[in-house]
Design goal:
- By secondary structure, the chain is an alpha/beta fold.
- It has four helices and six strands; from the N terminus they run βααβαββββα.
- α1 runs antiparallel to α2.
- 36% of the residues are buried.
């Protein structure tokens, strides 16, 4: 799968106004944020585990899911999603990063293209597009920046898709309202290309 993409205007807003230390920290956080999406695209569970903070208080909210409140729950959710997603690609826009001491927050819009369930074995199912706004909170560790919390919320406003020139969001754009362990269902659950 290909790498996550950022729109050029928003990739590094305001970096020229930062001192070199702050600019370097922000660049490191943005790199960690990109690595998160690239791990999802590759379906790389080992890389995903490496990216999350080794602490009991991590949390994650996938669109339409309840809050997951432990490292074990969070990593299991990604394993389920990646195991049942044939294809996923993230195009990130509106990327904004801020750093305060050892904590950083990245907000972005995930413009997602994913493959739904195939009708025949060995084929890619229909592609589904949706928009999710995400907040990713990172903590600085001796090994680098690690995810502490991820929150993804589907964009339901019809004007958002129209402004981007899209015809609207397929499948209602809600992420399907399905939770961990749910099986395939009309292309929106974990087995159908669900997107975190």
């Amino acid at each position: 799968m290909s790498r996550s993409r950022h729109d050029g205007d928003d990739e590094h807003p305001g970096h020229d106004d930062l001192d070199p230390t702050e600019a370097a920290a922000r660049a490191e956080v943005e790199e960690a944020n990109t690595a998160y999406y690239e791990a999802m695209e590759r379906g790389d569970t080992a890389a995903m585990a490496e990216l999350w903070l080794s602490a009991p208080d991590v949390s994650c909210v996938h669109p339409g899911w309840p809050v997951l409140q432990s490292r074990g729950e969070v990593l299991r959710s990604y394993a389920v999603i990646m195991e049942h997603t044939e294809y996923i690609q993230f195009f990130l826009t509106d990327v904004r990063a801020s750093v305060a001491a050892d904590t950083a927050v990245v907000t972005c819009t995930e413009n997602i293209l994913s493959g739904g369930p195939a009708e025949a074995a060995g084929e890619l199912g229909p592609l589904v597009g949706q928009h999710v706004v995400a907040t990713n909170v990172f903590r600085r560790t001796p090994a680098g920046w690690r995810l502490w919390s991820h929150h993804g919320s589907p964009v339901l406003a019809e004007g958002f898709a129209e402004e981007d020139g899209a015809d609207g969001l397929e499948g209602g754009g809600t992420g399907g309202g399905r939770g961990p362990g749910d099986g395939p269902a009309d292309g929106l659950g974990p087995a159908g290309g669900f997107t975190p």
